[in-house]
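Side project, low priority. Logging it here so it doesn't get lost.
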Amino acid sequence: MVIKCILAAVIGYLLGNIPSGVMIAKVYGIADIRKHGSGNTGTTNVLRTLGWLPSVLTLVSDCLKGYVACLMGKALCGDPGMLLAGLGAILGHDFPVFMGFKGGKGIATSLGLIIAINPWLALALLVVQIAAVALTRYMSVASLITTVAFPIVTAILCRGRDNYGLFLGTACIASALSLFGHRSNIQRLIRGEENRLDFKKISEVSRKVMEKMKKGKPDKHA
């Protein structure tokens, strides 16, 4: 059982290492997304740099990493394997060994874990995230709100479930990883220097990127 759980965590970590944002950005002409914007490989940096469609593809891909890892972990050793694999995927996404430990912040990969735990929990947190983005236009604020909400909602929706303590503990660890990943955002928010999402600008970036893709001439940024 112990060996299987360790294997589940390792599999999850390796799946988390898949650089979804980097690969998708390359398709759209960005050689290394880490050299643009915030330097992050996640959905938000792809959104600001390349627009809507690439960011959605990155979101789905990163989410799938977490979800598939959980499925494989559960097949190996049930709920403990699922949770360990999910946490492993988040760590692999945040600190990918094959990319110098410079990855994303784990929000989308965490969503994959949350879907595996309870789809209704995932839906509730997704609604909170979307509402927070719409109201504040700060992606970081929305992510921090859902990060704090994750253990609270888990405590409510998973109560009475077998391995309840494991589910709650996993939610707390995943939230702690997210808070750590957002530490620079928190500092900028305190200083009043955090950038809001400019939906008009993002739409304009999307339009230009799609036009260049249609012409077969994506920008080849270094």
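Brief comment: Residues 13 and 132 are 30 Å apart (CA to CA).
Revisit when time allows.
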